[in-house]
Structure formats: structure tokens, C-alpha cells
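Input/output pair, single chain:
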Amino acid sequence: MIRLFTAVALPDDIGRALARRQQGLPGARWRPAESLHITLRFVGDIPENLADDLDAELAVIGGAPFEIALSGVGQFGDGEDARAVWAGVEDSEPLRRLAGRCESAARRAGCKAASRAWRPHLTLAYLRRPDPTRVAAWTQAHNLLRSPPFRVAAFGLYSTRRTAAGSVYRLERAYPLA
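Output:
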């Protein structure tokens, strides 16, 4: 079994700018800059042969490069049940189309349908029983986040491995947009 997801990686300069915001929230497990990404389709644990089928389906997606930008921050969960803080992604038809194509490719490969509606975001930190006041203060302090537009010329298939320090991601294959 292999745990997979498709995603858009961030340019290094955008990752570094986000890393500077990753402070001021006690107990947050901040994601390292090299792990920051915008998930297109979480696949989950699948057999290796299904991963090969998924790779073949993703390889034919195609599409033209496009630009996106990050905008705003938020949290998943409320109060003490907040489980993550994230950076938002400005609405982008090409990004929605790419995510939809990744979903279709996963289904054609034999993967189950996504269990949640896709919501473009970039997870900055995972939280465990946070102080709701601190989460609200952090969100308010960073709610005007806006990145410069950046070009998406490829997406990738990533594997994830859980460790004591958190998940480690590895790019298994990149798919250029031409």
C-alpha cells in the first residue's frame, strides 16, 4: 500500500514568505516550507498496482499553465476543536478544472470518489486542543495575507509517510501542463 495525493507545489519564494508567518500560535505543528502545497485530490492508501493505473491516468490530463495567488487565512474546526490553520487560494477556474480532472483520473483508475468537497487551501499548521483566543488572534493578524500571482506549470503525484515529527512528502511524478 502507498498513501498518495496530487498537488501543486509552491515556488520557493512563496513558501519562504509563508514560513515567516508560522509563529505566534503555541502548540501549532507548523508545516515546513518544502512541504507546503495545494492539494488537488487526496487519494489515500491504495495498492501499488492501482497507483500505476492512477499515474497513467494523470499523465494524460494536460492543460495549459495558469496563474494563481494565495489570499487570506482561516481554520478548520471551531474553538477548541480547531484542527488546522490554512492559507486560502483566490478563486481560479483553471485550478478548479485541474482538481476536477485529477478527481476524474482517480475514479477512472479505480479509486473511490473523494469523501469531501474540494476546497482549495494550503495547510500551514495542524493544531491539537488549541486556545481558541490565540487561534482567533493569529487568524485576525494574518487575514490580509495575499501572495503575488505565481505560475502553475505542473502538478505532481506525491506519496506521504507518517513519522513522529509529522508527515513527510515525496514527489513521485511530475505532470507538466503544456
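The helical segments are 12-19, 48-58, 93-108, 132-142. The longest helix spans residues 93-108.
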